[in-house]
Amino acid sequence: MKLTLSAQDCAAIHLGRRIDVAAGCIQLAAEAMERQRTASGEVDLRGDGQLVAMSGRDWGEYLREYAAEIRQGAVPADQCAAQLPRLIELIKTLELPAGASETGPQRFARDIGIATSHLLRARMILQGLKLYGKLEGDPAPGADVDWAISLVNADSAASDPVALLLNSETEDTEGTQYEPIEPGETRRLRLNMGLPASLSPGQWQSNTVVVSTELDGQRLSTRAYLNTSASETATVALVAQPASARDTIRKLTAEVHNLRRDELDVRVRLILPMGWTSDPEESFLQIAPGQTTACDFSVTIPADAEANEYQIRVRLSGERGRGAERQSEPVNVFCFGQPEFEGWDNLALTATIATDSSYSGYDPLPLNDGVPLPPPDAHWTDAAWASADTTVEHWIEIDLPESRAIGRLVLVWPFDNGELFVSRDFQIQVYDELEADWVGIAQVDANRRSAYTEVTIPGINAQRWRILQPAGGGPQQRPNIMWVGEVGLYAAPEQPAAEE
Ligand SMILES: [Ca+2]
Description:
Blueprint (H helix, E strand, L loop, with lengths): L1 E4 L5 E3 L5 H16 L5 E4 L8 E4 H17 L4 H15 L12 H23 L2 E8 L7 E10 L6 E7 L12 E3 L4 E9 L9 E12 L2 E12 L4 E7 L8 E10 L5 E8 L5 E3 L2 E6 L4 E9 L7 E11 L7 E2 L3 E5 L16 E4 L24 H4 L1 E2 L7 E19 L2 E2 L2 E2 L5 E7 L4 E8 L7 E18 L13 E2 L1 E6 L9
Parallel strand pairs: 1-11
Antiparallel strand pairs: 2-5, 3-4, 5-6, 6-9, 7-8, 7-10, 10-11, 12-13, 13-17, 14-16, 14-18, 15-17, 18-19, 18-20, 21-23, 22-29, 23-28, 23-30, 24-25, 26-27, 26-28
This protein binds calcium ion.
The site of calcium ion has 6 residues, from loops.
C-alpha cells in the first residue's frame, strides 16, 4: 500500500471510515484472486470449524459479494475491520495446483501479495486510523524541514496499537514497541529531515514511514511516502541603477518575489567585495503571498578600489533562522578607480584620428574628446567609437602633430547597458617611414575585463601610432567589433642625461 504526502507544505491522508474506498480495495483484492482461479485450499471460512474448499475463483466471488455488502451497509465497518485480518490469513494458505507453468509460482505469489495488501488497506481504512502530514519550514534545497505527523484513532471503541518507523524499507517490526492510541486520541510526532543541498527545485526527496498496528497477534503495516519537494520559496533579482563608472555611490535594488502561499519573512543582504559598504546593511521584508517587494541599497565603493569589474549579489535568508539561504545572479559593477594617467597630458588630444570603419551612427570623434568616462545620460554616439561589425582587422590610427617618445598608451572601454566591452587582443604599432610599413611594438593578448587598459611602452619615438585589433579579437560579447571610449598617449618620462 502506498500513501503519498507530496503536497508542498500540507497534506492529509485520511485512513478514516471511507466505506466506498474500503469496498474498492476489497474489489481489487477480488480481481487479483480471480487471476489465480485454479489455486485452491480448504479453509474455515466462517470460523465455525467447518472446512470449505475455496478456489481462487471462489475467493474472487466471495470478496466481490463482501465488497457489495459493505457498500450497502449490510456488514458494519467495525465487524469488517475485525474480520479482514482473518481473511488475509486464510488467503495466505491457498496453494497452487500441481502442473503449473514455470512462471506460475511467481504470478501466484504476486497476486496473493496484491490481494492481501488491498485487504490490509481496507482494514486500515475501516479501522478509523488517520494519518496527517504537514511539512513545516521552507523546503528549499539544503534546508532542514520537519514533517509534523498526526496519527488519529477515529475509532469509537477499539484502541489501536501503533508503531511508526521512519525510513524503513521493510516492514520487519520485530522488537518494535507498539503503543496504543486510545479511541479519539491523536498521537503527534515530528520527523526532522534535511534536504540535500544538491536537490534542484522541483525535485523531491522521498522518506518512507511505515505505520504498523498489532491486534490479537496480527501485525498490519502500511507505508506512507513523505515526498518533500524542493521548492523555491522566493526568487530574488538584483538591479543596478544607471551610473557612471566614476560614481563612488551606487544604487542597487533587490526585488524579492514570494512564491509561497503564505507570508514570507526574509532577511536581505548584499554580498560585497572587501571594504565596500551598503546602507542599509540589511533589510527585513515581509512579503505577501505571490507578491514582489523591492528594497534599495546604497553601496559605497572605497576610494582605493582598483579599476575593475566587481560582482555583487544579494543573499536571502530566513528571518527566523529557518530555510536555506539563496543568492541572486550577480550584477556587475564597474569601478573606474583613481587612474594614474588622469591629470597627465594626453598627447592624443591634439592628434588626428582615423579608423578603418565606423559602425552605423558612430564616428571617431569621441576617441580623443578628453572625456574618458561620459556621464550616464550621454548619447551613445558621443560616448564611444565603434568599428563596423565585420570579421576583419579593425584599427585606430593616431597621427601626432610631431614625432614624440611615448611611454604609455591607455584605452578606455565603453559601457553599454551596464556591460563593459573590452577588446581581448590588440597590437600597438608605429609607422616606420623608412620601411613604409607598420611595426608592432607591444602586444596585448587575452586582455582582462577592466574599465581601461594601460600599456607601458619603452619610450619609442614616432609620429604615427596605430592600435590594431586582429579579426575576431574584439570583446567577448561582440568579437567582430572594436569599441573604444577614449585613447591616451602619454610622453615617456624624461631619461636622465647620459653621463659623458
Ligand atoms: Ca571619449
